[in-house]
Amino acid sequence: MTGTDTVPFVAQVVWSPDLLGYDFGHGHPMSPTRLDLTMRLVRALGLLDAPGVEVVGTSPATDEVLDLVHDPAYVAAVHAASEQGVENAALGLGTEDDPVFAGMHEAAARILSGSYEAAGAVWSGHALHAVNIAGGMHHAQRGAASGFCIYNDAAAAVRRLLDDGAERVAYVDLDAHHGDGVESIFWDDPRVLTVSVHQSGATLFPGTGHATDTGGATASGTAVNLGLPRRTDGSRWLRAVDAVVPPVLRAFRPQVVVSQHGCDAHGHDPLSDLDVSIDAQRTAVRWIHELTHELAEGRWVALGGGGYSVTSVVPFAWSNVVAEVVHAPVAPSTPVPVAWRDHITAVAHRETAALMGDGEVAFTSWGRGYDPEDEVDRAVVATRKAVFPLLGLDAHFD
């Protein structure tokens, strides 16, 4: 299938077993097993058989493409680390978070290429939506690795859209950790709105993403940061997302949306302190999808990201992302395919959930009132006060 004239739409799913090569070694949280198990579940649910789905592989990006979002000297250092084992802690290469491994450059460049090309497919009209669950490497800086991220594919996707002619691109990051790399790369670019909903930088890596961080001098109001307190649960998380994300997107009116769906906000995740259920995250994915159709004629590039509860969270959360992208949402009451559950038992020696959801989540909309005693509400107020006036929005909270 080569275009949108043969089916109602084309949803591009970036996937190849080659993407499993991004592997920092045994014991590292960023295990490629999470990708393998996700795609096994995606296939078992029949999501790749939905009408209009196009599965595409990807090759490593060229240095010319990498240089669009990274310093050439840094790219050269990654080559040296990958090919000769040269560590460079000053550039984040050879640290506990980002240990050097053979083939590092090719593996990271392949992920970046997947998101870069997906963005091109969406902007050209070949695909309406695209998803790269291996992507979402949002911590990588222009000149350094950081937080398990070597090359910043999310930034590359945004850059591709700008270079292809987009005038307003929204980047929405729902990972438990602040999307600092993408924000910093586009800090002074008024064409890019970066929105990050994360655990407060006061209590979690990378320590950034404060409400008062609202963009550079030439792009004031185009960085939106909502840092939430520890143990924020799904209903309060959804309330916070709803109070900030739709209003700022509607004010910015993006022509295309890139979203990052790190699922490490879940209560089972070992690397964050939030408590956001799979079903709450599923609801947020649906909201992003609906906003793309409302504001951007459906143009949407969805990415993976963090998520380190490998068997009990990641495959479920990201299968929901893929399902939303291909217009085949999976109800929380859907039984988990027996063959997939048997595979988990065989490889991980543990039982897994019998249903795709972990309980529907209700939330109270912001319009129903503000509780000054609630930490989440106070975080929302801080963000709205800091950035809403810059976007021409009313920051009222009473």
Task: Give a concise summary.
35% of the residues lie in helices and 10% in strands. With 398 residues, the protein is α/β, with parallel strands linked by helices.
Protein architecture, described:
35% of the residues lie in helices and 10% in strands. With 398 residues, it is of the alpha/beta class. It has a single domain, classed as Histone deacetylase domain (Arginase, Chain A, 3-Layer(aba) Sandwich). Strands 2-1-3-8-7-4-5-6 form an eight-stranded parallel beta sheet, with helices on both faces. Helix 4 (104-124) runs parallel beside helix 5 (153-163) and helix 7 (234-252) packs parallel to helix 11. The termini are far apart. Keywords: Acetoin catabolism. Belongs to the histone deacetylase family.
Question: What are the defining features of this structure?
Answer:
398 residues; Arginase, Chain A; single chain; eight-stranded parallel beta sheet; alpha/beta; disordered N terminus; Acetoin utilization protein AcuC; globular; 35% helix
